[in-house]
Specification:
This protein is mainly beta and 102 residues long. The protein has no helices and 8 strands. A hairpin with a 2-residue loop joins strand 2 and strand 3. The mean pLDDT is 85.
Length: 102
């Protein structure tokens, strides 16, 4: 069993831009890093990920009744990711790579 790394050892950070859909009905975004959910805010933020680029990042919106706009991807060489939900609070979202390190 692998033990977790001590705090401060993850040096790579990515920028995640979570765009607010037109209609949300009180929904808030949630970011998942390797399956662990973290509450987030609309707009741009930075998140710590593993150095090797094998981290899976996902985003979905939740409004106490249902979740929508779910999308996920593996980080790879990405530096910037952008999440967009649909226009209405139903269906999947898109998580696109904005820039790579090369």
């Amino acid at each position: 069993m692998d033990s977790p790394q001590p705090s401060g050892t993850t040096k790579r950070r990515i920028t995640l831009d979570v765009r607010r859909p037109l209609v949300t009905w009180g929904a808030r975004p949630t970011v998942t890093i390797d399956g662990v959910g973290h509450p987030a805010q609309w707009g741009t933020g930075t998140w710590a990920v593993a150095e090797d680029g094998s981290t899976e990042v996902g985003v979905y919106c939740f409004n106490r009744l249902w979740r929508f706009g779910a999308a996920r991807t593996t980080v790879g060489d990405a530096v910037v990711l952008t999440h967009r939900s649909g226009v209405l609070p139903v269906g999947p979202g898109r998580l696109t790579v904005g820039r790579t390190t090369r």
